[in-house]
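Quick one, probably user error.
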């Protein structure tokens, strides 16, 4: 029996409301704003308006009659920061529109039922709030952490279990049937569509809501047992006062997830940890006289270093201004996310790494002795010294860290090119940080 509270949806015209033109127009704005790649039919978001003007009435009638069938999703694999690949399923823009219409109509109906410990894919909730709540738990003495890892969660969601949970509240069988069609839509790979008997594709507008509906059962079980926790999508951490309690909860919750929710717990990655060894949404913690403070987790640091390396590969014939534009985009996005952590020293080290690699890029691009000497003289170096450095036999890395290049191609030089760097932007961001609460 579902633990989801709240009233049942007895709307006999639920599907009509989902397909109401005002709701669909809102969905259209969201889908076209998100842009994204096309599905298996090749239709792009900027072609959606014309398609709907010509076909909407017929499409709506087919959905209401139960004659509509979603297209297979296009399979795309992207590398994960932790290694391996993550499978995304890209629906057609038509299916994205219909899924968005369903999701935005249903979400407010479920929102009031969800747990305060759930932060992912919900209005006015975000990852920062989840990490700050975790910090609060640590500073009240709950310093043993159960970190749950659900193995390939989106690929393993049990359709029957999910449909049962939906049917507890949704009484319009047509809407349930349409959602079921979307769950079982095939996956197109190499021109062949294979049926989906479990899971739901990441990348579809319905997946965030459906994931919260099934994982609300976990939230409710944890609340029933009086546990403190934070969950962001399938990333869940539970906070306890003792090692013994943590191991007991790890064992019992793992059994519940597998037996009752039909999900698979990754026993190798799930663990009982202490704050300084823990990882939550890219953050970790360290002890201080003022209590537990946030820091950036080591995996997140490794990931950003890899991004810097990709953008500063000397073998790529990319103009410097293009590299800088891309680096600025990466820096601003990354610092915006991690600005709530104590991270000044990390930002300075990342800047040193980035500038060293950019010096190597420039040194390689200048190529010849004459070219290197000429560029050094443009920056004010006397001719004899410029040719002396241009003739060096040192390797690229040693040359990039030589006193001459460190003082010539320095922080001021790169700022002049528009590259403010991690530390500068971090300082600006932390001094202008908008309070979350």
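Nope, works fine. Designed sequence:
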């Amino acid at each position: 029996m579902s633990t989801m509270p709240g009233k049942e949806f007895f709307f006999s015209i639920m599907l009509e409301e989902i397909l109401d033109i005002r709701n669909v127009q809102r969905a259209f704005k969201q889908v076209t704003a998100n842009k994204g790649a096309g599905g298996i039919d090749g239709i792009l978001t900027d072609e959606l308006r014309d398609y709907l003007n010509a076909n909407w009435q017929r499409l709506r009638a087919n959905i209401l009659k139960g004659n509509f069938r979603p297209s297979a999703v296009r399979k795309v694999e992207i590398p994960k920061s932790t290694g391996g690949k993550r499978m995304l399923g890209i629906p057609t823009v038509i299916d994205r529109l219909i899924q968005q219409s369903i999701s935005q109509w249903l979400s407010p109906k479920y929102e009031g039922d969800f747990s305060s410990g759930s932060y992912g894919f919900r209005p006015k909730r975000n990852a920062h709030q989840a990490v700050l709540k975790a910090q609060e738990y640590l500073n009240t003495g709950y310093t043993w952490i159960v970190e749950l890892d659900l193995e390939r969660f989106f690929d393993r969601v049990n359709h029957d279990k999910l449909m049962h949970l939906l049917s507890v509240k949704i009484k319009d069988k047509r809407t349930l049937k349409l959602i079921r069609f979307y769950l079982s839509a095939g996956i197109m790979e190499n021109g062949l569509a294979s049926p989906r008997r479990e899971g739901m594709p990441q990348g579809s507008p319905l997946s965030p809501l459906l994931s919260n509906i099934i994982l609300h059962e976990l939230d409710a079980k944890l609340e029933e047992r009086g546990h403190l926790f934070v969950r962001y999508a399938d990333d869940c951490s539970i906070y306890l006062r003792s090692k013994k309690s943590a191991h007991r909860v790890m064992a019992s919750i793992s059994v519940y997830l597998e037996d009752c929710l039909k999900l698979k717990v990754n026993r190798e990655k799930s663990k009982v940890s202490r704050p300084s060894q823990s990882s939550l949404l890219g953050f970790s913690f360290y002890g201080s006289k003022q209590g537990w403070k946030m820091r950036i987790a080591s995996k997140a640091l490794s990931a950003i270093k890899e991004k810097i390396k990709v953008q500063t590969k000397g073998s790529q014939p990319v103009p410097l201004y293009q590299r800088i534009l891309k680096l600025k985009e990466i820096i601003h996005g990354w610092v915006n996310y991690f600005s709530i952590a104590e991270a000044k020293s990390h930002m300075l080290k990342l800047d040193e790494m980035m500038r060293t690699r950019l010096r190597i890029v420039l040194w390689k691009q200048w190529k010849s002795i004459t070219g290197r000497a000429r560029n050094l003289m443009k920056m004010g170096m006397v001719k004899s010294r410029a040719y002396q450095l241009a003739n060096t036999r040192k390797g690229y890395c040693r040359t990039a860290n030589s006193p001459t290049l460190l003082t010539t191609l320095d922080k001021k030089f790169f700022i002049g090119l528009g590259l403010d760097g991690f530390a500068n932007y971090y300082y600006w961001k932390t001094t202008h940080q908008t309070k979350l609460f």
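The chain is about 55% helix and 10% strand.
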